[in-house]
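Figure 3 (text version): structure tokens given as input.
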């Protein structure tokens, strides 16, 4: 037997054949998909990608800049986060991690959208109906357009990639900024009627999301055309922006919420002035101490269970879905890390009066990004102060001392004490950058999951990606740029009336600065402020960063003019077959 085996081994074996792998299946893009459900899984990955970028599910300097607005007029860093400052232009260059990671995020999402589009057309895919396929294609094209809008706003003209890439390329060519916007416009207008007016499943794309983006894209296009001196075409673009805004704002589907609603419509927020859970007793409630904060419709907008159109919120156009059960059982990413990332750290500079990480101090904050004095105070000075968005339930400025040894125990700690007025510059800087008013958008009086071990770092409500007030502000801006200040003021006053402001805007006051101020009041912790500043062009970003930054870094180092982020240097360097130009101000 051993002899026979030896003979077979030496006479019948071809080494090359023996060593050649013959897998029964090679997966390629063409055969990896067999069902329409698999195509939908690619779309689900697109939604998940958006959630990661917009909901701060991951901690990174990129998230703090792109989503958190670090380095803009609205947000800066605390003394304990100086190493992650994003407005020191002696340090910022084209190789900065933020620029590359953000740029890559968009192209990764484009790649997923292109894959879904390719897979949707494979002959073996059977669809339940033609409408199902049409909606899948529309969602993928929306995501692609959404990416190019963001890329155009942040980086200007970029390479437009519409096919899946199966081998390395080194010959990408930049389109112009106008061409980039136009591609996104064409994509959205092509699928506008393929998106439903409403969706059964919360979070899925609807026509209103495309109309909002078209309102923004035509505004963007008009601004880009004006930069090149093409004022007549710019006016046409502004008019188109207004018309798309009209469809949403003046239609019957969406409207501002003006009356209290939802899961807590009969409640007021309340807090315990306590630094330990054991001390959270009825006699320690703010209301028991005589400090009652009246809930209002704006506060309702940010309470759990109130974000979706399907839940009765008529200003919700597109909402990212956050689910505590999914967070606990799946990937741990279905969360809003807002209390952690955006929350103050009273416990360091104010431990004698305000200590702990409970609800009364905004949860377990580590202040990765903090609001500048512009965001917390300047926009509410004087006649602008009476505003629901500046109310105690929405933007809380009253903090009762929670240490029994404090002279302010159970009483409001004065801001002069919180800010350590009269002490050393280092002490004042530490206090002012770590202690600030707390928005109901980033913290709550009712955290979820405490019994499961959660520590008041995360919120588990759904998150707005598009809310009607932003559409209104886009239309107001388009009207202003088209020469209709009266119409722009009327739009802004829609929001101010809902916020029960005592002062209404006059047409003579409307300008870019006013628009930016109103966006800050309405969309704090919501808008991507870098997109807003950069898409406006000119020196708006540079001027406002230098004016409102907390630290002096940009005033000392921002000696260049720019209105775009740079193309990441590694992208330019690896595109070896074609020269890719860098954006002005970054050479």
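Below: residues designed for each position.
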């Amino acid at each position: 037997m051993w002899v026979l085996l030896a003979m077979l081994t030496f006479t019948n074996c071809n080494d090359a054949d023996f060593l050649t792998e013959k897998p029964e299946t090679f997966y390629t893009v063409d055969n990896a998909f067999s069902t329409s459900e698999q195509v939908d899984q690619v779309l689900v990955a697109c939604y998940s990608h958006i959630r990661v970028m917009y909901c701060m599910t991951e901690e990174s300097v990129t998230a703090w800049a792109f989503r958190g607005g670090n380095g803009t007029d609205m947000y800066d860093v605390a003394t304990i986060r100086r190493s992650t400052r994003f407005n020191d232009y002696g340090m910022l260059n084209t190789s900065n991690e933020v620029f590359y990671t953000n740029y890559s995020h968009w192209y990764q999402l484009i790649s997923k959208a292109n894959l879904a589009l390719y897979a949707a057309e494979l002959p073996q895919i059977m669809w339940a109906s033609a409408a199902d396929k049409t909606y899948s294609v529309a969602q993928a094209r929306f995501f692609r357009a959404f990416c190019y809008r963001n890329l155009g706003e942040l980086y200007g003209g970029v390479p437009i990639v519409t096919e899946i890439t199966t081998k390395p390329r080194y010959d990408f060519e930049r389109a112009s900024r106008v061409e980039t916007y136009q591609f996104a416009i064409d994509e959205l207008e092509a699928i506008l009627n393929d998106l439903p007016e409403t969706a059964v499943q919360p979070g899925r794309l609807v026509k209103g999301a495309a109309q909002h983006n078209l309102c923004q894209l035509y505004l963007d296009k008009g601004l880009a055309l004006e930069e090149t001196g093409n004022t007549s075409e710019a006016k046409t673009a502004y008019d188109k922006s207004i018309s798309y805004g009209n469809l949403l704002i003046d239609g019957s589907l969406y409207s501002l919420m003006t009356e209290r609603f939802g899961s807590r419509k009969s409640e007021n927020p309340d807090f315990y002035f306590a630094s330990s859970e054991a001390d959270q007793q009825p006699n320690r409630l703010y209301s028991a101490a005589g400090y009652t904060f009246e809930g209002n419709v704006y506060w309702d907008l940010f309470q759990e269970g109130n974000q979706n159109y399907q839940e009765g919120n008529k200003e919700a156009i597109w909402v990212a879905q956050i689910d505590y059960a999914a967070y606990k059982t799946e990937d741990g990413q279905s969360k809003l890390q807002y209390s952690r990332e955006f929350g103050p750290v009273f416990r360091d500079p104010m431990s004698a009066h305000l200590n702990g990480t409970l609800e009364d101090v905004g949860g377990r904050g580590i202040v990765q990004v903090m609001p500048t004095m512009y965001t917390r105070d300047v926009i509410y000075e004087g006649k602008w102060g009476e505003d629901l968005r500046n109310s105690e339930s929405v933007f809380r400025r009253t903090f009762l001392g929670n240490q029994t040894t404090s002279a302010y125990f159970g009483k409001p700690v004065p801001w002069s004490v919180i800010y350590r007025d009269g002490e050393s510059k280092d002490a004042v800087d530490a206090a002012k950058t770590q202690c600030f008013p707390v928005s109901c958008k980033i913290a709550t009086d009712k955290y979820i999951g405490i019994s499961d071990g959660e520590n008041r770092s995360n919120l588990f409500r759904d998150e707005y990606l598009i809310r009607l007030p932003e559409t209104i502000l886009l239309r107001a801006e388009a009207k202003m740029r088209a020469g209709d200040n009266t119409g722009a003021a009327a739009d802004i006053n829609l929001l101010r009336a809902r916020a029960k402001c005592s002062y209404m805007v006059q047409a003579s006051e409307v300008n870019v600065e006013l628009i930016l101020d109103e966006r800050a009041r309405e969309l704090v912790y919501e808008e991507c402020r870098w997109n807003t500043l950069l898409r406006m062009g000119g020196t708006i970003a540079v001027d406002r960063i230098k004016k409102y930054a907390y630290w002096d870094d940009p005033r000392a180092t921002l000696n260049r003019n720019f209105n775009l982020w740079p193309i990441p240097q590694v992208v330019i360097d690896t595109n070896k077959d074609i020269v890719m130009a860098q954006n002005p101000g970054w050479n």
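The domain at 36-203+566-574 is CATH 1.25.40.390 (Serine Threonine Protein Phosphatase 5, Tetratricopeptide repeat).
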